[in-house]
Specification:
- The longest helix has 27 residues.
- 81% of the residues lie in helices and 0% in strands.
- The protein is built from ten helices and no strands.
- Helix 1 crosses helix 9 and helix 7 runs antiparallel to helix 10.
- The relative contact order is 0.19.
- The protein has 245 residues and is mainly α.
Length: 245
């Protein structure tokens, strides 16, 4: 990559880190397409993985006092871990296109419900009962397609937990996914020296931007926060649709 391309990537990474530290999601969604303009997608994924894990770790630590409010998280994580193992094992045989179509359908149905005047909300009892199954599905998609956000984000939004508890929950799930992802990428030999150096260079950017995200989050209302998350989900659906077409 040229110097100008690296400067562009660092600039985009600042925006992506701000969105991530504000809403708990969106870092790979913003940064990966920018990187893919200059390099192979597989290499871009390896570059983004370390800093994405750091950001999720930061959010989890920052919001750790809200863990008791993330009522379904332990059951969800147990299912996600199992699903990730199964999804990784099935990776060679599952159709990537079909998985992406399912994810698009999940997002569309969730957005339609969320903006409906009669929006359905998950009760705590139903959440506890269904969390292992939904977590397993999220892990399956993470292992088989490298994507779980379209499952994770709607799930915790539908529980109507407090904003910080929601961020803690999704960051914890994404952190677990990130550890598994980096493990798989390492086994696959994806971390070449140039890839690793560029990936590590994004970590100081993530650390620098993180406090700004907390300031922005404290200044926006809960309604505005949810609207931003819904917009990010819609963008992720469009991104998936482009890949399907």
């Amino acid at each position: 990559m040229s110097t100008s391309e690296i400067v562009i990537i660092l600039g985009v990474s600042c925006i992506a880190a701000l969105i991530k530290s504000t809403t708990g999601m969106g870092y790979p969604l913003v940064l990966l397409p920018a990187l893919a303009l200059f390099i192979d997608v597989a290499e871009a994924i390896a570059i983004v993985a370390p800093s994405n894990l750091v950001l999720n770790g930061q959010l989890t630590w920052k919001m750790r006092e809200r863990h008791s409010e993330a009522i379904t998280l332990p059951r969800f994580l147990a299912g996600a871990g199992l699903g990730a193992i199964v999804g990784t094992a099935l990776l060679p045989v599952l159709p990537d296109r079909g998985l992406r179509v399912v994810l698009i359908a999940v997002i569309v149905l969730f957005l339609a419900n969320r903006i409906s005047p009669r929006a359905f909300a998950m009760s705590h009892a139903d959440g506890q009962r269904l969390a292992p199954a939904v977590g397993t599905v999220a892990g399956l998609f993470q292992g088989a397609a490298g994507i779980s956000g379209p499952i994770v984000t709607p799930w915790f939004l539908s529980l109507n937990v407090a904003r910080d508890a929601y961020i803690y929950a999704v960051a914890m799930v994404f952190a677990l996914s990130g550890v598994l992802q980096i493990g798989v990428l390492s086994v696959q030999g994806a971390f070449t020296v140039p890839t690793l150096l560029l990936g590590l260079s994004l970590i100081p950017v993530a650390f620098a931007i993180f406090p700004l995200g907390a300031i922005v989050r404290d200044r926006i209302s809960v309604v505005a926060f949810e609207r931003i998350v819904l917009v990010l989900l819609a963008v992720s659906a469009l991104s998936l649709l482009v890949k399907v077409l």
